[in-house]
């Protein structure tokens, strides 16, 4: 097993040994997995942790006085400390377990928006956003009679900060923006964005679905009011994620859902609620998933997020150079600060054809389509792109196989 002491950051082939699915072959060829922006694969350490929980520790939490329940409760509650350390939250009370990043955004849209949005108020997002950071705000704005305003970007795929500042008014109640674009890989200057918003007394939610896997997240340094991300994009299980919120906001907003465990006292006349974070965690939580997520975080910390980021940047540079050497291939999004994913088009082949041929011919897994970002596709005047997204277990050989596959696509569609 790799540790920070014996790790060579460029030796990605050793990482692959920890990921069982990456050794799988289909029709005699290994899988080349380049869809990490959608979900990451799981190391055996995470798989074993979840299996062990179900086989020898399974019980509910905070409801039993017996050995299994007490052990599970301790393990579950300890994950908050691990997560707080991972993103440098001030307190574990600021860590809420959700179903995922989308659930975290919906929680704030519903709870914060339901309390603070009034008719005529404004919510600010950007052109770069995933549907998960558009639709929940549209829904609450429609319900409350508020307005959704959109910050523009330039052709490189970067937020225009001057326009952002102009769009904030005394009616703006919250700014919700991505850390890293899932389509373009643009790394937004979120510290500066938060500074601008806070200068006008506007709280900020960061969609960190692509941020947490690729770069160090320090919510105190960023200064954001909310930050949310998913476990399955940081090598953990599906069905669970994290919402960080400053305690002052978590105390001020109402619960998202009602049920067991999130209460203080219940009577038919009135219910009072538990303090944060339990206030936002109604019902039996995803215990095994939370414990598995902790193992994934420990795996990342054992490697070092700075080493991961440096290696993935190397892959990005290599892939960009190689892809641009393919005639008729155009990369969409060329921000000065990018994470390790590339969206592209080819002159003669539709994105769906590209993805299908790469899969059938070479077992290469990429994402094709609008990437849950149709407004961004409209900005660039396209209906779909192909996207290759890289992780620390990918290699330059994977990229070479992608390039070979794309050259094959080009040959098939040559006229």
What's the arrangement of secondary structure elements?
Elements: H1 12-16, E1 25-26, E2 29-30, E3 32-33, H2 44-57, H3 67-87, E4 95-98, H4 101-116, E5 122-126, H5 135-144, E6 147-151, H6 161-167, E7 172-178, H7 190-198, E8 204-207, H8 211-214, H9 219-222, E9 226-230, E10 241-245, H10 247-252, E11 263-266, E12 271-273, H11 287-303, H12 305-324, E13 329-332, E14 341-346, H13 351-362, E15 364-365, E16 367-369, H14 374-380, E17 385-389, H15 396-413
Parallel strand pairs: 3-15, 5-6, 5-7, 7-8, 8-9
Antiparallel strand pairs: 1-2, 4-10, 9-10, 11-12, 13-14, 14-17, 16-17
Helix pairs in contact: 2-11, 3-11, 4-5, 12-15, 13-15
| Helical run tally | 15
**Quick one: overall form?**
globular
Into which percentage range does the β-strand content fall?
15-25%
CATH class of the largest domain: Alpha Beta
Radius of gyration: 22 Å
Number of DSSP E strands: 17
Strand order of the largest sheet: 4-10-9-8-7-5-6
Regions with little confidence, pLDDT below 50 for 5+ residues: 1-10
Helix content: 40-55%
Report, as a whole number of angstroms, the end-to-end distance: 50 Å
Largest sheet: 7 strands, mixed
């Amino acid at each position: 097993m790799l540790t920070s002491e014996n790790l060579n950051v460029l030796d990605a082939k050793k990482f692959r040994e920890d990921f069982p699915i990456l050794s799988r072959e289909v029709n005699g060829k290994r899988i080349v997995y380049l869809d990490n922006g959608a979900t990451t694969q799981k190391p055996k350490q995470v798989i074993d942790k979840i299996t062990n929980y179900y086989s020898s520790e399974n019980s509910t939490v905070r409801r039993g006085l017996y050995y299994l329940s007490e052990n599970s409760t301790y393990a579950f509650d300890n994950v908050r400390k691990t997560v707080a350390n991972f993103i440098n939250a001030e307190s574990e009370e600021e860590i809420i377990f959700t179903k995922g990043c989308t659930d975290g955004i919906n929680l704030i849209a519903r709870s914060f928006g339901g309390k603070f949005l009034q008719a005529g108020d404004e919510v600010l997002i950007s052109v770069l956003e995933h549907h998960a950071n558009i639709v929940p705000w549209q829904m609450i704005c429609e319900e409350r009679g508020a307005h959704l305003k959109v910050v523009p970007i330039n052709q490189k795929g970067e937020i225009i900060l001057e326009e952002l500042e102009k769009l904030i008014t005394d009616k703006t109640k919250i700014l919700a923006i991505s850390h890293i674009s899932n389509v373009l890989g643009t790394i937004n200057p979120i510290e500066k964005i938060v500074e601008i918003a806070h200068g006008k007394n506007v709280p900020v939610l960061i969609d960190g679905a692509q941020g947490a896997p690729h770069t160090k997240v320090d919510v105190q340094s960023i200064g954001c009011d909310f930050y949310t991300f998913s476990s399955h994009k940081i090598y953990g299980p599906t069905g669970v994620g994290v919402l960080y919120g400053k305690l002052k906001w978590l105390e001020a907003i109402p619960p998202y859902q009602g049920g067991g465990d999130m209460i203080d006292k219940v009577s038919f006349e009135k219910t009072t609620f538990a303090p944060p974070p339990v206030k936002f965690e109604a019902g039996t939580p995803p215990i095994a998933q939370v414990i598995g997520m902790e193992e994934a975080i420990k795996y990342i910390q054992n490697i070092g997020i700075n080493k991961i980021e440096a290696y993935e940047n190397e892959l990005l540079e290599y892939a960009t150079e190689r892809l641009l050497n393919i005639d008729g291939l155009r990369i969409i999004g060329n921000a000065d600060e990018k994470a390790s994913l590339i969206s592209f088009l080819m002159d003669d082949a539709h994105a769906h054809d590209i993805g299908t041929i790469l899969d059938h011919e070479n077992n290469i897994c990429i994402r094709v389509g609008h990437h849950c970002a149709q407004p961004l596709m409209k900005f660039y005047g396209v209906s779909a792109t192909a996207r290759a997204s890289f992780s620390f277990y990918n290699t330059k050989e994977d990229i070479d196989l992608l390039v070979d596959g794309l050259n094959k696509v080009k040959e098939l569609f040559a006229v």
